[in-house]
Design goal:
The chain is α/β, with parallel strands linked by helices. Helices cover 30% and strands 22% of the residues. The protein is built from nine helices and 15 strands.
């Protein structure tokens, strides 16, 4: 996951071109232009207004995709077009001898993805995917807690993203263009879970929501079960006016909560297993000792660990991988695993059953 951190080690300037200059395309351009020894050679977009926007930002708009691919100075092509165009544009770039970074989701199915991987192999060029959420600090904190067993053996992980604006109103709300929240946010959260947990889930059960859109899902709940006994809930909602925590992690010795991307949260852990007496909680209709909170002398509260990440490491790694100086951080087997998992999610929701044949 860690790329080359100092651009001064590069042998030469890395020239990028970007296909699609919408929200993500312009975001790529902004980050790349801030990096030493990296240059944005130009962009291509079928929308003239986006080409004009690039020109105003000092970026050359190519007159056609062919012109972009025929530019010998372009070393890496970023495909940031709508999801249904990823395969065609990526394969065309690889067949032109270009290294390719594709936006997520890489494709609309594992069959398409295998065609893209085959194009990478026959042309001996880099093909990777912009799984940038691996560099989110909330995820890296969750991963550290899991890897170091800070909470003891973890038996439950909840990962979610909540919003209240419904599904975006552009191509992301159409099935034809690969819209829906599973392909938009689900691919990020499932990729994080696959990177977090070193075993593959043995079963998948999913429910998709259609609160604001009948054609594609505007949210989902995915239950993943593992041979080790671990269970995971992966959830996205777009009609939530009170958000639940971004991460909720339970271990044998404590619980962690990461509230949001602002990294607010805490750990609460057992400090004394011997003192088991509890003061009963009185409810309106009775009392309970089982659900009474632990007393202060038996638990301790800790802040979340601090982790700093730099998403520009993704680009640094891609450059080095294109030059065959290190392995790509986002690999083909990882991409196939996430795609198969998403296909199991869709199959589970459609058939309303637990899917056990995922891999």
């Amino acid at each position: 996951m860690v790329g080359v951190k100092e651009e001064k080690t590069m042998e030469k300037t890395a020239n990028f071109a970007i296909v699609g200059y919408g929200g993500m395309g312009s975001w790529h351009a902004k980050l790349l232009k801030s990096m030493p020894q990296v240059q944005v050679s130009g962009i291509y977009d079928i929308d003239p207004s986006r080409c004009k926007a690039a020109a105003r930002a000092g970026i050359r708009p190519y007159g056609s995709y062919e012109e972009l691919l025929n530019d010998p100075t372009v070393e890496l092509v970023i495909v940031a077009a709508p999801n249904d165009l990823h395969k065609e544009l990526s394969i065309k770039a690889m067949d032109a001898g270009k290294n390719v970074i594709c936006e997520k989701p890489v494709a609309l199915g594992s069959g398409e993805l295998r065609e893209m991987i085959a194009a990478s192999a026959r042309n001996q060029v880099l093909f990777t995917v912009h799984q940038n959420r691996r560099w989110d600090e909330d995820f890296l904190i969750a991963k550290q807690l899991y890897d170091r067993q800070t909470l003891g053996k973890v038996f439950r992980i909840e990962s979610r993203v909540h919003g209240s604006r419904g599904i975006p109103g552009d191509w992301r709300n159409t099935k034809q263009h690969g819209g829906g929240m599973v392909l938009d946010w689900g691919v990020h959260l499932l990729d994080q879970i696959m990177m977090l947990i070193p075993e593959k889930p043995k079963s998948v059960y999913a429910v998709l929501s259609h609160v604001t859109n009948e054609e594609v899902d505007d949210g989902f709940q995915i239950q993943l079960l593992y041979e080790s006994g671990l269970s995971c809930l992966v959830e996205v909602g777009t009609s939530n006016f009170i958000n639940l925590p971004r991460w909720y992690i339970q271990g044998e010795n404590g619980t962690a909560v990461i509230e949001d991307w602002d990294l607010s949260g805490k750990l609460v852990m057992v400090s004394d297993w011997e003192k088991r007496d509890a003061v009963p909680v009185v409810t309106a209709a009775g009392l309970t000792k089982t659900m009474a909170p632990r007393t202060d002398e038996t638990i301790r509260e800790y802040p979340l660990p601090k982790i700093q990440a730099d998403v520009k490491d993704f680009y640094r790694n891609a450059i080095q991988a294109a030059r065959k100086q290190e392995q790509a951080a986002v690999t083909h087997p990882q991409l196939l695993d996430v795609m198969k998992l998403m296909e199991a999610v869709f199959r589970s929701a459609e058939e309303n059953k637990v899917i056990t044949e995922v891999w």
